[in-house]
From TrEMBL:
The keyword Transmembrane appears for this protein: yes
Locations listed in the record: Membrane
Molecular function via GO: protein-disulfide reductase activity
Entry membrane topology: Multi-pass membrane protein
Top-level lineage group: Bacteria
GO CC, any one term: membrane
GO annotation terms (biological process): protein folding
The keyword Plastid is assigned to this record: no
Source taxonomy: Bacteria, Pseudomonadati, Pseudomonadota, Gammaproteobacteria, Alteromonadales
Transmembrane annotation, as ranges: 12-35, 47-65, 72-90, 110-135, 147-168
Protein name, entry field: Disulfide bond formation protein DsbB
Species whose genome carries this gene: Ferrimonas balearica (strain DSM 9799 / CCM 4581 / KCTC 23876 / PAT)
Protein keywords: Membrane, Transmembrane, Transmembrane helix
Length: 487
């Protein structure tokens, strides 16, 4: 038993000195004092956890292995791995070579921090298996290898002293905390930065400071129209089939086959005939299959027999209209369906400017062979963004913020909820459902120079242009009603 304890003490001492001398020591003395690399707030969290892991190993050497020390190692390993995971995830989807700080063997330093904490957890698990069913007894007052312990303790104190100097001078004493983008290490007071900006904030949403409320299709806050003028009267209205019992959120038309497509807030896709009175085929998208698709916000035909439906989380499904498509074939993809409709692909649009916004509408630019999304207004007050994706590979091709020229200040103070989008060659039509207005946009330049007010009920959804008519849908008392406006 004593021989096993001696081996264990040596291993614990070795683990302590390795953690302090390699990741913590190198980060402080080589990266910090020599290369002038300053740790950010995440780096300090990870470094602190590593120091506490090394300190816990020293406690085990001195006082013996106890359940509370094992619990401390598990807690510190989980906490450190969590902080390193969050730190790593910031650049996980970045292009090759991108990230923060220096690289070691091709990986940035915070990635190695994640490996260190995973190794800590693996070692603790192996230790528990090695001990069997009981912890060893209390060791003698003098460790079995005092010289080794002194060396380890000296390394620990030396490295932690360097970290104290770096932390105090570059980050500051409490209550100052780390920075998100620290400058180079400097002992000149003019270049030291002591900040209070990054104390954690808490909210009811698990996504923290990046929380964006889900779009509401039933409740849209009214906004003022951007352009003056008399409202365009309704030229005709039509009740859509009663089988469509939930709110329609988007509509599109395919001129060759003369079919309409509509999607609803409860994941249904309906294909209607040219008279909009008969349902030809229908499917209820399983939004939880493979890639999560949240409530449908857009639909666009890309050919005579193909269309794309879009969830407000920018996840999409490509659908095909073919006689050989049955519900049995599409069992995984659809909760329900009739024959004649199937799914061929499912994916997610990746954006840059629109990353922290939900999608509100979808259109297809036939001339450019691109799908175009527009974002939903949110509580952050972010400008609305139009994102273009090549149909060939569904990858981002272009992205731009909306710009209304001399009306930009008014636009930003009065961001509408765009609930419909239609593209007709050089002309694009954006339905402001919150203002009852159609914004006229140049498809190529993105310039919005005038608008058309519509005499519609509150909260119209979806927009399609067929011939010289604009059509939108409103939902009232369980009935979807189509409104036509002649231009």
């Amino acid at each position: 038993m004593q021989a096993r304890d001696a081996i264990f003490n040596k291993l614990a001492s070795f683990a302590s000195v390795v953690i302090m001398a390699l990741p913590v020591g190198i980060a402080c003395f080589i990266f910090g004092f020599l290369m002038k690399d300053n740790p950010c707030a995440f780096c300090w969290q990870e470094r602190t956890a590593m120091i506490l892991v090394a300190l816990t190993a020293l406690y085990i050497v001195r006082f013996g292995l106890k359940p509370k020390y094992i619990g401390a190692l598990v807690w510190l390993g989980i906490y450190g791995a969590w902080m390193a995971s969050v730190h790593t995830s910031i650049n996980l989807g970045s292009d090759i070579g991108q990230g923060f700080s220096v690289k070691i063997m091709g990986a940035h330093t915070y990635t190695w921090a994640l490996l260190v904490f995973v190794v800590v957890l693996v070692v603790v698990a192996a230790l528990m298996m090695f001990l069997g069913n009981r912890f060893p007894g209390k060791p003698t007052q003098t460790p079995g290898n005092p010289a080794l312990v002194k060396v380890v303790a000296s390394v620990f104190l030396f490295v932690i002293s360097g970290n104290i100097v770096q932390a105090f001078t570059q980050t500051g004493p409490p209550p100052f905390v780390g920075q998100d983008s620290p400058g180079r290490v400097s002992f000149n007071p003019k270049f030291m930065s002591w900040e209070l900006d990054h104390w954690p904030t808490y909210g009811p949403d698990a996504r923290g400071a990046y929380a964006i409320s889900d779009p509401s299709y039933d409740q849209v806050n009214r906004t003022s129209p951007m352009f003056d003028g008399a409202a365009l009267p309704v030229s005709a209205q039509q009740a859509l089939p009663a089988a469509i019992s939930s709110r329609i959120t988007a509509i599109d038309y395919e001129p060759v086959s003369q079919r309409y497509a509509v999607v609803t807030s409860d994941m249904w896709v309906y294909i209607l005939d040219n008279s909009l009175s008969r349902i030809l085929t229908q499917a209820k998208i399983d939004g939880m299959y493979m890639i999560h698709i949240s409530p449908l916000a857009g639909v666009a035909f890309t050919s005579e027999n193909e269309l794309v439906v879009l969830g407000d989380n920018k996840a999409f499904a490509k659908l095909v209209l073919q006689p050989d498509q049955t519900w049995e074939v599409n069992y995984r993809r659809f909760n329900e369906s009739t024959d004649g409709i199937g799914e061929s692909e499912r994916g997610q649009f990746a954006t840059v400017r629109a990353k922290l916004s939900y999608a509100a509408a979808l259109a297809y630019d036939k001339d450019a062979e691109q799908l175009v999304t527009v974002t939903a207004a949110n509580e952050r007050g972010d400008n609305l963004v139009a994102s273009r994706f090549a149909l060939e590979d569904m990858t981002l091709s272009a992205e731009a913020n909306f710009n209304l020229g001399d009306k930009q200040d008014r636009w930003m103070a009065n961001l509408p909820m765009l609930t419909g989008y239609a593209i007709d060659g050089p002309h694009s039509f954006l339905l402001s459902g919150s203002a009852g207005e159609v914004l006229m946009m140049n498809t190529e330049t993105g310039a919005i120079d005038h608008g058309i007010r519509l005499a519609t009920p509150a909260n119209p959804q979806g927009l399609v242009k067929v011939g010289n008519n604009l059509m939108t849908v409103a939902f009232d008392n369980g009935v979807n009603t189509l409104y036509r406006f002649e231009l």
